[in-house]
Design brief:
The protein is mostly helical. It has six helices and no strands. Helix 2 packs antiparallel against helix 3 and helix 4 crosses helix 5.
Length: 120
Amino acid sequence: MSDVQFMDDPLLENLVQFCMKDEFQEKFFWFCEQHCMKFSLNEEEHRIQYTEYHQQYMVEFEEQIQKFIEAEQLTEKEFFLRCRSAQQTDGKAAHYLGVFLASIEYESFYNLMIKMKKRK
C-alpha cells in the first residue's frame, strides 16, 4: 500500500506515484543538469533565455502528464475536472496538487536551476 492515499479519488494517488517514478524524475533531473550552468547567480533581472528554457521544460512536463492521462484512459478535460474536484474537497489532494502546480511555475523552475548550478 502506498504512503500517499486520497480519500476521494485514487487518480491523484496514481499521479503522485507516477511523478515519483525514477523515469519521470530522471527526465527532469537531466534537463536541469544540462541547462543549469547557463543560469547566472548574480543577475538582478532574468534573461529571456531563461523563459525559453522554462518553455522547453514545460513541453517535457506536458508530454509526461499526457502519458499519464493516456495510461489512465482519460481525456484531458476529465483529468483536469477530477483534479479540480479533488482540490476543492480533499485537503490532502489539495496539498499535493499545490506542490505539483508550484513545481511547474517559472519561479520554481528558476530556483531549481540556480540550486542545481550551486551544487555543481
